[in-house]
Write a structure and sequence with these properties.
Elements lengths: L16 H34 L4 H43 L1 H22 L6 H28 L24 H27 L2 H28 L2 H10 L1 H22 L3 H27 L15 H28 L4
Helix pairs in contact: 1-2, 1-4, 1-5, 1-9, 2-3, 2-4, 3-4, 4-5, 5-6, 5-9, 6-8, 7-8, 8-9
The protein binds protoporphyrin IX containing FE (HEM).
Amino acid sequence: MNPASLIPLVESIPIPWGWFDVLLVLTFTVHILFMNALLGSAAIGLVRSLRGNHELAHDVGQKSPPLLALTINMGVAPLLFLQVLYGHFDYVSTVLMGGWWLAVIGALLFSYYGFYTYKFKYDALGNGGRNALFLLSLVGIVYTAFMLTNNMTLMLLPETWTEYFTRDGGFLNLSDPTIAPRFLHFMIGSLAVGGLFIALLGRMKDRRDYVDTGMTWFVRATLVNLAAGIWFLIALPRPVLLAFMGDSLPATLTLLAGLLAAGMSLWAGFGRKPVQTTVWAVITVLFMSLTRNWVRVLYLTPWFSMEDTPVTNQYSSFYLFLGFLVVGLALVGYMLKLYFRSREGRA
Ligand code: HEM
């Protein structure tokens, strides 16, 4: 029996899959950049605070609630596109994780309240209380990230799903050799982008010390992340690894483009240029997201090929979506303009 026939498609799709795939990668890139800025800046602030310097934690703590809101909102978009393309894998892995997955809601609510309390009750909390609250809020975020890595890898391994029948409840994908390097790669990347966020904050506030601290974290974390990336690569199953070593030209070129952009970001980082570094870092994350997309396609090759998904060619809802997207982005742009003008005291 063809194993793929055991995982039937959820539905046909209205327009060719390429549209959804592009939107999935683009929105995921934005989601992960916000997540990196949140997690990384909070972690760096906390490290500083534990060493007795509370100012940076206070300043990044002002940004944590909006960064969390943006991370969550920008997570909804890729979730929708993921369901359209890979619903028959992703729904299954989500259900198999059971309570571990459902606890994400509690963890996020806890972190949200924690970050808000930190921001608005800063003066009322003592140093110890502040650090404890910031740390616990950060733990909720790290837990969520770990659950997402479990989900995104479990969906790629249908051969492990039968484990469900030998267990009492939901389970994680802990025996997968890629899980540790993959998660670490995301966490170290967060420290790098978080550092960059602090450097940009320093640039806006005219604080040279924040620029220096942020750029130092960016460069060091990115160098360490090259090692984590290599570990991740060699932990991949052999056919997937070989695809990135030349067996698949588009996959290999995507990874090389990501590495090249990472090199450029390091070069700009060593030169202590936050804006230039940010441009290269965003390009790096975009190419790494594309590489991650290749990893998924290659893993699922025995089970599923996107080309087999029936297309109904009903474009009306897509045009409606594009219309709302353009109008929505214009409105957000207008709101941001009003917001920044009001901050300058001109509104
Ligand atoms: C602060 C909370 C969050 C953190 C720290 C976080 C972190 C992450 C990480 C690390 C990944 C990549 C996992 C991997 O590939 O190994 C990821 C992927 C993803 N996240 Fe989030 N996430 C958060 C909240 C959310 C929320 C609330 C949603 C949905 C409403 C969401 C939707 C997604 C989706 C759909 C993906 C996968 C996209 C794809 O496979 O292309 N995330 N997230």
